[in-house]
Amino acid sequence: MPLLRGVWGVLSALGKSGADLCADCGSRLRSPFSFVYIPRWFSSTLRSYPKKPMTSYVRFSKEQLPIFKAQNPGARNSELIKKIAELWRELPDSQKKVYEDAYKADWQAYKQELIRIEEELTPSQRVTLEKEMMQKRLKKKSIIKKRLRLKAVNESWKNLTSSQKQVYIQLAEDDKVRYFNEIKSWEAQMVEVGREDLLRRKVKPPAKSAEECK
């Protein structure tokens, strides 16, 4: 997990937003309007906000990545970042402290800027912010509940015997046949009324009988 977090952090620092990887990721706001943490999804009330400072490890990785790329042309970023992580672990505490001190200084400046932004919020912006926070929390809870339900269903499926699974497999196959027949019937009706544009695939009109050709 530390390595994955490190990879994510380095990719973010290099311009690949964490939001591209996980739409719901981002830190939470503290109660009720303390902007020590601002989520990535927040944008309507504040059009811009200061970027969170890089951690000591991410700062070190960003410095080292170009060097490792030059030394290992053609290597994947993930491979290079793994090597950088190993180098970071072996780095003496005295050298790590340089990066940690830089992070602490940036973090203090970051907090001060967020406090300034909070003080400039209008009452209407505060109300909007609170609503957005509530909507986000509800959405996140809903996603978590769905994932838990899916996990429970998956576990139940794994515990079924082969004969028990076969019952559901056959039901699924029957549904496929029913669906195909219903779609085929609907498509034929659309062809008859001249609405081929509604079809998802090309369907040839039924051939005319010999009597109709006369």
Automatic annotation (TrEMBL):
Signal peptide: none
GO molecular function, one term: DNA binding
Heme as UniProt keyword: no
GO cellular component terms, A-Z: nucleus
Residue ranges of DNA binding: 50-118, 151-187
All residue ranges annotated as the HMG box domain in the record: 50-118, 151-187
Keywords from the named record: DNA-binding, Nucleus
InterPro entries in alphabetical order: HMG_box_dom, HMG_box_dom_sf, HMGB
Family matches, as SUPFAM superfamilies: HMG-box
Pfam family, one: HMG_box
Record-level GO BP terms: regulation of transcription by RNA polymerase II
Protein's name in the database: Transcription factor A, mitochondrial
